[in-house]
Design goal:
- By secondary structure, this protein is α+β, with helices and mostly antiparallel strands.
- Helices cover about 15% and strands about 40% of the residues.
- It has one helix at about 1-20, and strands at about 25-35, 45, 55, 65-70, 70-75, 75-80, 85, 90-95, 100-105.
- The strands form three sheets. The protein has a four-stranded antiparallel β-sheet with strand order 3-2-6-7, with no helix packed on it. A three-stranded mixed β-sheet has the order 4-1-9, with no helix packed on it.
- The radius of gyration is 20 Å and the shape is elongated.
């Protein structure tokens, strides 16, 4: 009898763990020069939060994709040699829609 109750509790905990998800989302966008509107290749785009450490480099067309970012308030930073750093205010990233950004560097 004791074994069955322990087994039941174990199975309940296991089931709960299997169905719990870490909600994440994708941030994609493009990095461009603010004045010429040309894409910037090799700009560094990162999450500027202590809890999330992820960064990517923009491609030749200026595009980038940050994947599996936990939902919540996030700050995004972009840097490129010769340009001022770009930092967003707290952007709310939710699980319903991926975020698309156009980052204009000055």
């Amino acid at each position: 009898m004791k074994f069955k109750s322990h087994l039941t509790v174990f199975l309940l905990l296991l089931t709960t763990q299997l169905f719990s998800q870490n909600l994440t989302q994708t941030i994609r966008g493009i990095v461009i020069d603010k004045h010429s509107r040309r894409p910037l290749e090799a700009a560094t785009i990162s999450i500027a939060d202590d809890s999330v450490q992820q960064h990517v480099i923009s491609k030749t067309d200026g595009s980038f994709v940050l994947s599996n970012i936990p939902v919540g308030r996030r700050r995004i930073m972009c840097s490129f040699i010769g340009y001022d750093d770009y930092i967003t205010d707290n952007i709310i990233l939710n699980s319903t829609r991926e975020l698309e950004l156009v980052i204009e560097m000055e």
